[in-house]
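Run log, item B.
One chain of 135 residues. Sequence copied directly from the ordering sheet:
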Amino acid sequence: MKKIYLSVIAAVVTVVFCGWMATAQGPVKDSSKTVQGNGTVVINTTTLCPKVNGFMGPTPLEIRIRKDTIIDIIALPNEETPGYFYDASKLLKKWIGLTPKKGLELEVDAVSGATFSSNALIVNMRAGLKRALQD
């Protein structure tokens, strides 16, 4: 139980730090948000939270949103242990079909046995959804 609390605290600290870094840097033009010809908004979290790590390093995502609905989430290349990361990445399905605003309100628990990867994915999702709601 103590490990779960420590993991949750670590995730919260990471989210706060990531948000602070984003605001401390001020408005920066980056490629984290693009719009495709069909209107699909694509959020890439690689530059949003480069220091948000799973067990072995960054776990960036590509979040696809069309007509204010999350339609797909793709885990980008990372160094996580494949089996554990596969288990952790299953939680990404919980955001499919939600609006970015509802996605930010979603409470998601880490996958047991893949806590670091899970927490990193959750932080990346929240950062990506916050970016989706900007400009």
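Observations after the first pass:
- Residues 2-132 form one domain.
- The helical segments are 2-24, 82-89, 100-105, 115-132.
Flagged for discussion on Thursday.
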